[in-house]
Design goal:
The protein is an alpha+beta fold. It has helices spanning 120-132, 137-156, 180-190, 198-204, 209-220, 224-240, 247-253, 259-270, 274-286, and strands spanning 2-4, 7-17, 27-30, 35-40, 45-49, 59-60, 65-69, 75-79, 86-95, 109-113, 168-169. The radius of gyration is 20 Å and the shape is globular.
Length: 287
């Protein structure tokens, strides 16, 4: 556990991967002594708060939203439909004076919409800091953690009740220009079969390669190449879920020269080979 002023970061997890939970089955109850901030990007996930098996009190989670569970709050989750992949992330932390979450502390669950995914890069960055464990990383982790908590407090004061029916919302005060993450994604998906090199991408974005690399890590918590691989594998999962898909064809469509290299990267990022993923999705479609 890394101790920072006012907040202790117990654990951070962030990854895009094939889900391991069985569909249609309630999982829980989960209960932690710390606060839990849990991300959901899908429309088919159900939840319920309380120690008893889920029933009429269950509700559907909002897409692109966070659930903030107070310490020792029991909760359940269920995936209603089979999915090819999900972006899973959660942040476990404890709070010490003088820092507080005043409105959230009065209930077991607070719901926060994040349509622009503003907190997502911070969790990826905290995950990387936690995994590296280098000297001085505590201060960097502190900064990310406090940004996240500050955004939650600000959202709670913008309006809404913090419930599934009336969530708080994390949003820019004014519309903002597309960041480097959005611009890189647009350039990548424009021609997936021919992903741009770092130099070519920097030229399109009006930056030097070194400036793009440095600014991208600062803004998103990932390197340019990490983000491009994430986008390509995400699109590969979508293509493999289409009827009649093949591993070799999908590899070429997302810019891999060989099916072997594609399979290696896909397995490293999802925990499944493309063939296993394809077969799993085919079985889900038949069931």
């Amino acid at each position: 556990m890394l101790q920072v002023r006012g907040v202790s970061v117990a654990a951070v997890f962030a990854a895009a991967a094939a889900p391991t939970r069985p569909r249609g089955v309630w999982q829980g109850p989960y209960r932690y002594d710390s606060w839990v901030l849990d991300w959901n990007e899908r429309e088919d996930v159900e939840a319920q708060v309380g120690p008893l098996p889920p029933g009429a009190a269950s509700f559907r989670r909002l897409p692109c939203s966070w659930h903030l569970y107070a310490p020792r709050t029991p909760y359940w989750h269920r995936d209603r439909l089979p999915v090819a992949t999900e972006e899973a992330m959660w942040f476990l932390f404890t709070i010490a004076a003088p820092l507080t979450l005043p409105l959230a502390a009065t209930r077991g669950l607070s719901v926060i919409r994040d349509p622009q995914r503003q907190l997502v890069p911070h969790l990826y960055a905290m995950r990387d800091l936690q995994e590296r464990g280098e000297d001085g990383m505590g201060l960097a982790l502190q900064g990310r953690a406090l940004v996240v908590l500050g955004a939650l407090i600000t959202a709670s004061r913008r309006g809404g009740e913090g419930t599934p029916q009336s969530p708080w919302c994390i949003a820019d005060e004014q519309p903002r220009p597309a960041g480097l993450g959005e611009r890189l994604e647009a350039e990548t998906v424009r021609d997936l079969a021919h992903p741009p090199s770092l130099d070519a991408l920097a030229e399109r974005l009006g930056l030097s390669a070194s400036s793009l690399s440095h600014r991208f890590v600062q803004e998103t918590g990932q390197t340019v190449m990490q983000r491009m691989r994430t986008i390509r594998i995400r699109e590969a999962r979508r293509l493999l879920a289409e009827p009649g898909a093949s591993v070799k064809q999908t590899a070429h469509r997302v810019g891999f020269r060989t099916a072997f290299h594609f399979s290696s990267v896909f397995h490293r990022m999802t925990g499944l080979t493309p063939r296993d993923f394809l077969h799993r999705h085919q079985r889900s479609r038949r069931s």
